[in-house]
Automatic annotation (TrEMBL), chain A:
SMART domains reported in the protein's UniProt record: PGAM
Family from the record: Belongs to the phosphoglycerate mutase family. BPG-dependent PGAM subfamily.
Keyword Transmembrane helix assigned: no
Protein species of origin: Xanthoceras sorbifolium
Family matches, as HAMAP family: PGAM_GpmA (MF_01039)
NCBIfam families: PRK01112.1
Protein name, as recorded: phosphoglycerate mutase (2,3-diphosphoglycerate-dependent)
Keywords: Glycolysis, Isomerase
TrEMBL record, chain B:
Enzyme class: isomerase
Family annotation (InterPro entries): His_Pase_superF_clade-1, His_PPase_superfam, PG/BPGM_mutase_AS, Phosphogly_mut1
SMART domains in the cross-refs: PGAM
Protein name per the record: phosphoglycerate mutase (2,3-diphosphoglycerate-dependent)
UniProt xrefs under Pfam families: His_Phos_1
Keywords recorded for this protein, A-Z: Glycolysis, Isomerase
Domain of life: Eukaryota
Family affiliation: Belongs to the phosphoglycerate mutase family. BPG-dependent PGAM subfamily.
EC number: 5.4.2.11
Tagged with keyword Isomerase: yes
Length: 330, 370
């Protein structure tokens, strides 16, 4: 149980039961660190997760200078795990719901209208970034709406990692060619950002642009309530939550989950309904339960993906909060 | 020196002009009749209706109730403090100064070059690689926004790259006007349909944001992603210098400045100039090379001159478009700067126009300088 840390922390690292037997590492921890508790305990990130160079997950408890943790999070994508560790490929999944938009402020139904962030929404994005500044990110998925894209880009300005998010363009041949990078070195230092309409907010049909007053007048209060709060009743020419879930979860399973499976750390910056749809899948919620899921704006939600399972890890706390733990591979 | 009383007739009227267009837009938008299944969605409409529609506007203005043909046009060279007389935001539409409505063929054009990107910081050739802003670039955008917070904006054009789009959106968070920028989507039928707005009031309160690849940075071909060292190693210093500083020699599989200018200026003439002609105030958020290409056209520069043109990042550049001509008005100063100017046109008793330069120190009265 030697603590052969490859970095020199300022604080003391107290390692508990960090066996070298990688196969049972997590098992050992579960008794001390209540790892099982993590799965159901949606509380803070205080028990932090560190993803090591080989993508291996190690959970230890210790206080460590925040600044030094990032040194450990160098690129995990260009090293292949050895055979012993393959079964332990674990990756982090960060979900961020964008903050206040200009129509939130005006109390208008937004849906898929492409409305940008307010000053407050910008601050929320930056705050979110501070909270995840030490969690590795290899790929970013966003919706095609600017408020989610800006949230991702603003959050990443706070990231300790030196990799650069690059928005990918595939809308046509020219866009693809024109955005090509010609240096291998630079590519390795890039975090692809993939915009996908399937991660857009639920399309609100003929309610888009209306305020609650107008809408109640036009359609009647009860009907509006039904559209907003039911699972499967869409507003006129819009999507129900069910329809939104369908395309969001399908996209997640087809495009995002394979990345996690291969050990990539992924951040998804999107919207209230597209994210709760994904959470419904991750947490295996019923349609009754998902209606009540409220994802806070600008507060990132962390999941750990391992062997096909998603373990909710709650919201990472910011670095300025006392009692923050960091974990490191030893 | 003229006394203050003379200036009671001065209408610094950019906002009134904008309000005018807003009012006329009411006429237009009531015809839009957004219904599900019909093609007149906002997205569609704003692309095709605006050029036509706003030309109609200008005709309406001549025959309409908007004044006797007198025009007062004010340009805010810089926004003064909140106590400034020059506060068009508060000019109400139904003000008794209806004679002060701007004639429809004058419009403001703001050019903003985005600030520092993550590859600027790393000294890599960026071109059309879609690299976002650094913290500093974010701050530059916000600062730019403060400088133009009082200049009306009816439409925004950006490139297809996030650093320009973010610059525009960040800048507009500082804008005094309550209108909301809305990005138009036309990449597919679904994108168009899904982004429809169903309230006319809301549409009137919107500033369409149009993204165009033609406003992208010059495409740097095989240099994209390389740093200066790598590039010099790979191709030789002299060759690299030629690519970077010539007008018409492109890097391998890239664009020359000439090629960039071709598509940027063509886009400007086809899409943006008609908006200005109809009196729309336009902001363009783009890149060093696409903007200097446009400036080459606006200022009628030679290829020699444009090569040495450097547009500061994050410092907006203002032009006034009038009767087919572009008049450069420099950079609006920040609101905290002392001795800011405002320019205004005054109608003298004989009906002649005079362009006066006013100085408004933060606490003193308006004084005419010339």
């Amino acid at each position: 149980m030697a603590a052969t840390a490859s970095i020199q922390p300022v604080g003391a690292i107290h390692l508990r039961d960090c066996g070298n037997d990688s196969g049972s590492l997590i098992g050992k921890f579960s008794s001390r660190c209540s790892l099982k508790g993590f799965a159901i305990d949606g509380r803070s990130f205080a028990k932090g997760i560190c993803i090591s160079r080989q993508g291996k997950l190690h959970v230890a408890r210790g206080s460590i200078c925040h600044a030094l943790v990032m040194d450990h999070f160098s690129s995990t994508s260009d090293t292949t795990p050895d055979n012993n560790e393959k079964t332990l490929i674990e990756s982090s999944l960060i979900l961020i719901r964008h903050g206040e938009s200009l129509w939130n402020e005006k109390n208008l139904f937004t849906g898929c209208v492409d409305v940008p962030l307010t000053k407050r929404g910008i601050e929320e994005a930056i705050e979110a970034g501070k909270r995840i500044c030490n969690i590795p990110v290899d790929m970013i998925y966003t919706s095609t709406l600017i408020r989610a894209q800006m949230t991702a880009m603003l959050a990443m300005t706070q990231h300790r990692h030196k990799k650069v998010p690059i928005v990918t363009h595939n809308e046509n041949e020219q866009a693809k060619t024109w955005s090509r990078i010609y240096s291998e070195e630079t590519k390795k230092q890039s975090i692809p950002v993939i915009p996908a309409w399937q991660l857009n907010e639920r399309m609100y049909g003929e309610l888009q642009g209306l305020n609650k007053e107008e809408t109640a007048e036009r359609y009647g209060k009860e009907l509006v309530y039904e559209w907003r709060r039911s699972y499967d009743i869409p507003p006129p020419n819009g999507e129900s939550l069910e329809m939104c879930s369908q395309r969001a979860v399908a996209y997640f399973k087809e495009h995002i989950e394979p990345r996690l499976q291969s050990g990539k750390h992924v951040m998804v910056a999107a919207h209230g309904n597209s994210l709760r749809s994904i959470i419904m899948y991750l947490d295996k919620l019923t349609s009754q339960e998902v209606i009540n899921v409220e994802l806070s704006t600008g507060i990132p939600l962390l999941y750990i993906y391992k062997e096909g399972h998603f373990m909710k890890r709650g919201s990472p706390v910011g670095p300025t909060e006392a009692g923050v733990y960091a974990y490191t591979k030893v | 020196m003229l006394s203050l009383s003379l200036f009671t007739r001065i209408e610094i009227d950019i906002m009134a002009a904008a309000a005018f267009h807003q009012a006329v837009a009411t006429v237009q938008s009531s015809q839009l009749l957004i219904n599900s299944g019909r093609r007149n969605e906002f997205g569609n409409v704003s692309m095709s209706l605006i050029p036509k529609g706003f030309k109609v506007n200008s005709q309406l203005s001549r025959s309409g109730s908007y004044g006797s043909g007198k025009r007062n046009f004010g340009v805010i060279q810089a926004s003064a403090s909140q106590t400034s007389v020059v506060d068009p935001v508060s000019t109400p539409l139904n003000n008794s100064t209806s004679e002060a409505k701007k004639k429809s063929n004058e419009a403001a054009l703001i050019l903003v070059r985005h600030g520092e990107s993550l590859w600027n910081e790393k000294n890599l050739f960026t071109g059309c690689v879609d690299v976002p802003l650094t913290k500093k670039g974010v701050e530059e955008a916000i600062e730019a926004g403060k400088r133009i917070s009082n200049i009306p904006v009816d439409m925004i054009y950006t490139s297809a790259l996030i650093r320009a789009q973010m610059t525009a959106m960040l800048a507009m968070t500082q804008h005094r006007r309550r209108k909301v920028p809305i990005i138009m989507h036309n990449e597919s039928e679904q994108a168009r349909a899904w982004s429809q707005i169903f309230s006319e009031d809301t549409m009137k309160q919107s500033i369409p944001v149009i993204t165009a690849w033609q406003l992208n940075e010059r495409m740097y071909g095989e240099l994209q992603g390389l740093n200066k060292q790598e590039t010099a190693d790979r191709y030789g210093k002299e060759q690299v210098h030629v690519w970077r500083r010539s007008f018409d020699i492109p890097p391998p599989n890239g664009e020359s400045l000439e090629m960039c200018a071709e598509r940027a200026v063509a886009y400007f003439k086809d899409h943006i100039e008609p908006q200005l002609q109809s009196g729309k105030n336009v902001m363009i958020a783009a890149h060093g090379n696409s903007l200097r290409s446009i400036i080459m056209y606006l200022d009628k520069l030679t290829s020699q001159e444009v090569i040495s043109l450097e547009l500061s990042t994050g410092i907006p550049m203002l032009y006034i478009f009038k009767e087919g001509k572009f008049m450069r008005r420099g950079s609006p100063a920040g609101p905290t700067e002392a001795g800011v100017y405002a320019y205004t046109r005054v109608i003298s008793s004989s009906g002649h126009y005079h362009l006066l330069q006013l100085s408004h120190s933060l606490n003193g009265p308006l004084q005419v300088l010339k």
